[in-house]
Specification:
By secondary structure, this protein is an alpha/beta fold. Helices cover 30% and strands 24% of the residues. Helix 3 packs parallel to helix 5 and helix 4 packs across helix 5. The longest helix is centred in the C-terminal third of the chain and has 16 residues.
């Protein structure tokens, strides 16, 4: 099983992600997608971000992934100041995190092993490291027996576990999961979050955006609720 170094206590760490008075509007309208958002996410946390459609969840993630820039305020993530980060350094920054998408985004003509290995090729890992690490992470997500299957041969839940393995294989400090249960059935939704929970207990910080409140209630983690671009609740005990 892949081993992830356990960080120190949250109180003794600097934030992995910090928003300071962040606001974002788009050219198409005057409505704030985010307005005066202040958030600190620390190493070792598991944080759910919830809210209705249009609450600002997608914008929040786009700012963290540096797909968009804030109109005002400051954003820090994994040691980078995102509000002044040059475009040419964005790919290097994104390699410090693992990203799990709702729509899986697997490469259709690559098998499971190679889809996960591709994430290591991107960061320049050598072949021996790939041969060593990919089987470990596939074992962690329960797909070691499907290593040579193509994406179309997998169920939705299996495809999402490949996506999770790909996000984890480079041992990021944080995994950002964007509605990772949106395209799987309810039973598999629980299994995906249970797997994220296990990864978190091993030391990786998890930031998960979701609309599934029933699922969130089963896992007692911090919950940040967005409404009309503002934080209306930040509950360390869940919802």
């Amino acid at each position: 099983m892949i081993k992830i170094e356990k960080p120190g206590t949250i109180q003794n760490e600097r934030p992995l992600i910090e928003f300071r008075g962040v606001s974002k509007t788009y050219p198409s309208g005057n409505t704030h997608a985010l307005e005066d958002v202040n958030i600190r996410i620390f190493p070792g946390e598991f944080v759910f971000v919830v809210g209705a459609s249009g609450a600002g969840k997608s914008t929040f993630l786009k700012l963290i992934m540096r797909e968009e820039k804030a109109n005002s305020g400051e954003i820090y993530a994994n040691g980078y100041k995102l509000t002044t980060l040059p475009r040419k350094k964005v790919p290097l920054y994104r390699r410090t995190m693992g990203i799990v998408f709702q729509d899986f985004r697997l490469i259709p003509n690559m098998d499971v092993f190679d889809n996960v290995a591709f994430a290591m090729h991107v960061v320049g890992a050598d072949k021996s490291a790939i041969r060593r690490e990919v089987p470990k992470v596939l074992n962690l997500v329960g797909l070691q027996h499907r290593a040579r299957a193509l994406p179309h041969q997998l169920s939705g839940g299996e495809q999402q576990r490949v996506g999770l393995a790909r996000a984890l294989v480079n041992r990021p400090k944080i995994i950002v999961a964007d509605e990772p249960t949106g395209n799987v059935d309810p039973n598999m939704s629980y299994e995906i979050v249970e797997l994220l929970d296990r990864i978190n207990r091993a030391g990786t910080t998890i930031l998960m955006v979701t609309h599934e409140h029933n699922l969130v209630r089963d896992f007692h983690h911090r919950v940040i609720m967005l409404e009309n671009g503002r934080i209306v609740a930040d509950n360390a005990e869940g919802i």
